[in-house]
Write the structure tokens for this entry.
Amino acid sequence: MATERLILKELGRYKIGTWADIIYRNALLHADRLAFVYGPQRVSFSQYNARVNSLIHALNSLGLRKGDGIGIVSWNCLEYTDVFGAAMKGGFIISPFSPRLQADELDYIINYSEVKALFVGKELLEIVDRIRPRLPGVEHYISLEGAAPGMLTNGELLQTFPKEEPDVQVEEDDIYLILYTSGTTGVPRGAVYTHIRRLEDVRTMALQLRMEPAMKHIMILPLFHIGGSSFFWTYFFGGASNVIMTQRSFDPEATLKTIQDEKATDIHIVPTQLVIMMALPNIDKYDLTSLKRIWYAASPMPVELLRKGMQRFGPIFEQGYGQSESGPDITFMSGEAHLVLDRSPEEQKVLASCGQPCIWVHARIVDEDNNDVEPYEVGEIIAQSKYIMKEYWKRPDYTKEAIVDGWLHTGDMGYYDEKGFIYIVDRKKDMIITGGENVYPREVEEVLYRHPAVLEAAVIGLPDEKWVERVHAVIVLKEGQKATGDEIINFCKENLARYKSPRSVDFVAALPKNPQGKILKREIRKRYSQ
């Protein structure tokens, strides 16, 4: 990298408070240090900067300019980082879409995002090709891994365009990222983030993780999720390494082998993945002594599972709680706070919490009138920080509901104790978290009501040993109609992402209702809890 020997002057090329500054800083000061590992590929920080520069020049050649939207629908891969970097440094707005979505879901969310260029992973080429006529705003399609008919190729763009620094300057308040969440109505909402909001979050995480450049993080969570993305870029921010795992479904043996072979220090999991790893009969054959931290999030960890995990892996567990709109980190539970296994049952109760408010986060629990509740009284968790989302993309009505006087209303119900530990007890909006994925019942119910035999339907979450919660449908059939559970499940899989589809179905004669005819899900849940 040509720095004309004036390396300190060069460090000031991009503005403080932007991701462009972080990418360039790492390339200058840690040029040969390992940034990413993806299978046999190993990319240094200086090589990554060059890749990003080439992609920015390529997008500029296609007519895209600062402020334009670029979308990506793919599973994790090295090229995914190129697209993020182009947005971070080139001033584009990146919209990562879930590759689990079905055609109708994808076409809606891509049109809503207003992206002009769409990067497509190899497993998504067929579905994207099918919906191309329904995406009038997308001007350019780019295949991420290898050639594809009717698309440009990311690799060829990197080889063709120059590696010099682009002539663009981003500002800390520029929007660079939109992350999508379904919302209770099932209509996608885009949580909008600026450079400085995301950097405030990763700076908080870096402090709490006690970030050091020698760390090596195994990336098994998807980059299109706020949690996975936040953790991934925190390690990048700190000059540490990320090992990118590409599996479409979690492969416990491959993950453990990678920890062993790469001598990884950190991994970020959801509770379901711990269940799967703990169930391996040959887990002890792997050398996991390099592992210093297992961070868990996305759904509550059953206390008994956490206890077994700590007995197997040691006192290396830490936890966070947040959501797509909160940036995400609201609470943090340190490794030290977990060290209660040899203490009284009363002291062990803290393992059921999600920790205390993060550094630079204010959290409160309030009643329906927005009054603060007393310890152990259940209310809604609200949060305030410098890194909650700016707004919902193109939805000021939803933004006004979610952010009131600077406080994000999470919709999660919980209580707190005298030490400020927060305990989540329910979700105000009936959201189900299965395998770390958020599922909103109404979205599933809308599909169930499209089945010709279904009269009424209610979807709830039930405890599950593997998935922590599973999607369960309770159905009343139309008079004279028949259907099987497998038929209902397959119907949903044809119309929804698979993780949203019910894993179990019950048929009943009637659903409990209030006098106004509203289905009482609390009564349904109570029935199953008994």
User: Anything to note?
Assistant: The mean pLDDT is 93. The longest strand covers residues 454-464. The longest helix spans residues 45-61.
